[in-house]
Amino acid sequence: MFPAFIPNVKDSLYLFNDAGVHHSCLAKHPLGSKVSAFLETMIFKTRPKNRFCDIGGNIIDLPENYLFTNLLTSDEKDTLYSFNFMNIDIRNLSKWKDRKNFIDAIEKFEEEKEWEEIGGFNYLEYVLKKLKSPL
């Protein structure tokens, strides 16, 4: 079983989002090892004991200060790729050198229509709003 950790319908790995897959089928699928590696990273990074801020290095102990980025894109060539699976303490955003780069990457991704959410919640817009919010 894969959790719902791929919020972009247009991503090539979306077919695994919130889906059950036979182990033997996953092993044979051309994207099986890639999605499995992403899943391992996501599970590791979201464990409470591993919630160290990727900006400041501090443990994020309060839920209201915690922002986690899911798999934003599986395309290694996209600028947004480097921002996958980040643990962010929102109190550290003001001192983050890559904040503007992350915002720009999201906006470019949206402009190029590379993102499509399912349902009424736009996860990428949520992340963008958090990044742009005054601190």
Question: In brief, what are we looking at here?
Answer:
With 135 residues, this protein is mainly α. It is built from 4 helices and 2 strands.
Give the biggest sheet: 2 strands, antiparallel
The level of helicity is 25-40%
Beta-strand proportion: under 5%
The class by helix and strand makeup works out as: mainly alpha
Radius of gyration: 15 Å
How do the strands of the widest beta sheet line up side by side?
Answer: 1-2
Number of contiguous helices: 4
Helices and strands, in N-to-C order? HHEEHH
Query: Given the C-alpha coordinates, what overall shape results?
Result: globular
Low-confidence stretches: none
What is the number of strand segments?
2
Q: What's the average pLDDT?
A: 95
Through-space gap between termini: 38 Å
Explain what you see.
- With 135 residues, the chain is mainly alpha-helical.
- It has four helices and two strands; from the N terminus they run ααββαα.
- The chain has helices spanning 23-28, 32-46, 99-111, 123-132; strands at residues 66-68, 87-89.
- The chain has a two-stranded antiparallel ribbon with strand order 1-2.
- Helix 3 (99-111) packs antiparallel against helix 4 (123-132).
- The longest helix has 15 residues, at 32-46.
